[in-house]
């Protein structure tokens, strides 16, 4: 599901850029502060409705501009567009029609991002890891988004009752039943994909030329005790939940853990090894989605950071197998282009764009 044409306007230091993208590899090279990450951020906003650097739309909109626009045409013939204005308003469109939700955008353009924040898969909270698995399940299981939404509605209702302190048993029982019903289904969908995810990551890690100090174990915790159904577990934890004012168990507390010899993987692996683990996790997610639906687009901010040349090539090779297209940034063109040159066609002929002061220009052979 590659992007063919991309238009970005009023986005950080990019005043206006209109690009014809290569169907496989696109490299954006330029000095610090040139606008390379901003371009990836714009594509990310198009596919998710939000930035990966800021929660505030205002900080993303170019100073002195009234708003930002990102628009793309996909090779499937779809078009996506998003607009945000400084007054807080905005709209998103799919094929010129209003998008119903950000998950509708996400569903049109499955995206994988690797940047300096990607290590939070290992050293961040459980929510980050849960979302890894959920991204995969969302794109593969059409029922997941609805079950998860129902679960969250019931969770908000139960938490509201808990915060009142004195509980009407009938009222809370109704919400607990709905919570348990959706929660069990969310868990079944997650568990159904977890095995596949786990073996895809392990298979990729076996391809690392330098190996790792030991096998990485990947464990899934569903968020409540194994031997109890969710409805019973909710009833049992009710009293404690009241004193804390929120629901302490359930799929919203699930986690995916990466360990090595019983220790959190990040306590043992070097920074480069951690990055390759993160790349393997992201590639495995893309593989699963491409097996069942479509190949995602990869955004890779500063591929050479932390990786030696061999590992950069391994990751480039993984991307060529599991992604439809990749947008990569790098400071120095020679170094950014090298990992792709040894791949087979068409992955070995990247389109190079030079980025400077927010201006993005394709190398002459690829100009519009
Ligand atoms: N709202 C904004 N309006 C205008 N310029 C902005 C805005 N927000 C950030 N900038 C500037 O836009 C530039 C974009 O930086 P960006 O992070 O895209 O650079 P980069 O090319 O990825 O650099 P690096 O190699 O240092 O990561 C920076 O110079 C930044 O100061």
UniProtKB/TrEMBL annotation:
ATP binds at residues 30-37. It comes from the Bacteria. Keywords: ATP-binding, Cytoplasm, DNA damage, DNA repair, DNA replication, DNA-binding, Nucleotide-binding, SOS response. The keyword Glycosyltransferase does not apply. Residues 3-336 form the RecF/RecN/SMC N-terminal domain. It is found in: Cytoplasm. Gene3D superfamilies: P-loop containing nucleotide triphosphate hydrolases, RecF/RecN/SMC, N-terminal domain. SUPFAM superfamilies: P-loop containing nucleoside triphosphate hydrolases. InterPro entries: DNA-binding_RecF, P-loop_NTPase, RecF/RecN/SMC_N, RecF_2. Its main location: cytoplasm. The RecF protein is involved in DNA metabolism; it is required for DNA replication and normal SOS inducibility. RecF binds preferentially to single-stranded, linear DNA. It also seems to bind ATP. Belongs to the RecF family. PANTHER family: DNA REPLICATION AND REPAIR PROTEIN RECF. This is DNA replication and repair protein RecF. It comes from Microbulbifer spongiae. The gene is recF.
């Amino acid at each position: 599901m590659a992007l063919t044409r991309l238009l970005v306007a009023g986005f950080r230091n990019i005043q206006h850029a209109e690009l014809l993208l290569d169907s496989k590899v696109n490299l954006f090279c330029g000095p610090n502060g040139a606008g390379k990450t901003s371009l990836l951020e714009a594509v990310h906003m198009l596919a998710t409705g939000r930035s990966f650097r800021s929660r505030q739309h205002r900080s993303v909109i170019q100073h002195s501009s009234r708003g930002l626009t990102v628009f793309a045409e996909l090779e499937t013939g779809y078009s996506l567009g998003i607009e945000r204005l400084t007054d807080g308003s905005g709209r998103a469109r799919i094929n010129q029609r209003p998008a119903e939700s950000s998950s509708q955008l996400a569903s049109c353009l499955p995206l994988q991002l690797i940047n300096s924040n990607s290590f939070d898969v290992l050293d961040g909270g459980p929510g980050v890891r849960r979302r890894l698995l959920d991204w995969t399940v969302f794109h593969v299981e059409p029922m997941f988004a609805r079950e998860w939404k129902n679960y969250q509605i019931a969770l908000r209702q139960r938490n509201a009752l808990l915060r009142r302190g004195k509980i009407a048993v009938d009222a809370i029982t109704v919400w607990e039943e709905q919570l348990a019903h959706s929660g069990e289904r969310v868990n079944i969908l997650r568990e159904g994909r977890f095995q596949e995810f786990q073996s895809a990551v392990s298979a990729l890690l076996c391809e690392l030329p330098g190996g790792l100090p030991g096998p990485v174990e990947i464990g899934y915790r569903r968020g409540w005790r194994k031997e109890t159904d969710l409805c019973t577990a909710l009833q049992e934890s009710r009293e404690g939940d009241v004193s804390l004012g929120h629901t302490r168990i359930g799929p919203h507390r699930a986690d995916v853990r990466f360990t090595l010899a019983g220790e959190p993987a990040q306590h043992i692996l070097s920074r480069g090894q951690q990055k390759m683990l993160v790349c393997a996790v992201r590639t495995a997610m893309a593989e699963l989605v491409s097996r069942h639906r479509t190949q995602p687009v990869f955004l890779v901010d500063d591929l050479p950071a932390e990786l030696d040349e061999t590992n950069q090539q391994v990751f480039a090779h993984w991307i060529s197998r599991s992604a439809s297209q990749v947008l990569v940034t790098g400071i120095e063109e020679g170094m950014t282009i090298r990992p792709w040159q040894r791949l087979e066609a068409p992955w070995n002929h990247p389109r190079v764009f030079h980025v400077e002061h927010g201006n993005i220009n394709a190398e002459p052979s690829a100009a519009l």
